[in-house]
Specification:
CATH architecture: Up-down Bundle
Oligomer: single chain
CATH topology: Ferritin
CATH superfamily: Ferritin, core subunit, four-helix bundle
């Protein structure tokens, strides 16, 4: 497995972890309903893609990449603060849309940066970008 392939898979895996961490965090603030169901659905989709990355990295005897601890802590604290003040579906959707935009931007950058990555890893990155776009589009209905 080329270095670019490993790096791209690690970034995709870390992105999936960041997304699922955020989705699981906001779940505590959600009541039953369509938004909760939407977030549950996309959380499962991100977990499945993360598992795919994890499997490929394991097969190559490579370790996963976790989100940076400081970024994870900052994200958690800022989300908690925003939701303690206002846990309406609009605010939750707004936070999730911002996360989708960050994911799309980061993954697009990594696709350009790791041009020598395997076709399979590029397809996974593009699948994750497409998933983020679709999730964001659905979330816009709650703003």
């Amino acid at each position: 497995m080329s270095e670019d392939t490993v790096c791209l898979l690690k970034e995709c895996n870390a992105g999936c972890k960041s997304a699922t961490n955020s989705m699981e965090q906001v779940q505590a603030f959600l009541k039953e309903g369509k938004l909760k169901d939407t977030i549950d659905h996309y959380n499962k989709e991100h977990i499945a893609l993360g598992d795919k990355c994890h499997k490929l990295l394991n097969e190559a005897d490579e370790s996963e990449k976790d989100p940076h601890p400081m970024a994870k802590a900052f994200s958690w604290m800022s989300t908690e603060m925003k939701l303690m003040a206002n846990d309406e579906e609009t605010k939750i959707s707004d936070i999730m849309v911002d996360g989708c935009k960050m994911g799309i931007k980061s993954l697009s950058k990594y696709l350009r940066q790791y041009q020598e990555a395997s076709k399979e890893s590029k397809n996974i990155a593009q699948e994750l970008i497409d998933l983020e776009k679709k999730f964001m589009t659905e979330l816009l209905a709650y703003l």
